[in-house]
Amino acid sequence: MGKGESSSKKVIGREDWEKRLSDVKIRKEDMNKLVMNYLVTEGYVDAAEKFQLESGVKPEIDLSTITDRMTVRKAVQSGNVEDALEKVNDLNPEILDTNPQLFFHLQQQRLIELIRSGKVEEALEFAQEELAPRGEENHQFLEELERTVALLAFEDTANSPVSDLLDISQRQKTASELNAAILTSQSHEKDPRLPSLLKMLVWAQNQLDEKVSYPRINDLVNATLEDPV
């Protein structure tokens, strides 16, 4: 952007901007519902119970179901996929029956855990019997299977091109996918609303940047206004 274009933009000072923000009325009840939605979706049972007492906002689903869902999620996060599969089937067997991609990713995670434990022969047998048939039916599954089995080709897996599969973030990714499926089966939103609103805020600020200079919120955690440059 050239200097002439930049100087032609309207500049709004902090005092004026804060006044405009204060003129936007948001009900406390709506804010409380957003917080409760986040706690319920992400599975913070204790926090949701305390927040219910403090705010009077009732969760949209039975909090006891969150405990079951979090037990399943934690099993995947700790690498105990077999236990997670057993528990999710106890919750609702249709979750896996109707979601072949999720089931494949859970089986893929089981394979990763076998490789992580150094059980090479068992890992190869599991890949051949449980995952290879699904890979033959789905090209995407086959690519993911080949990438996972490639872990066995490297002595130093930490510095291999597929090292990310052994990272804790891979467990988290699988656990989140399973968590979303359970939420959907319970007719509940799979994603909390609060992060979506923050994404909308970033988008709105980017659009506004083209027309005006104003105190931006760059630090989303603390919601700190920064004076226009």
TrEMBL record:
Alphabetized Pfam families for the sequence: CTLH, LisH
One GO cellular component, as annotated: nucleus
A biological process from GO: proteasome-mediated ubiquitin-dependent protein catabolic process
All copies of domain CTLH, residue ranges: 65-122
Protein name stated in the entry: CTLH domain-containing protein
Parts forming coiled coils: none
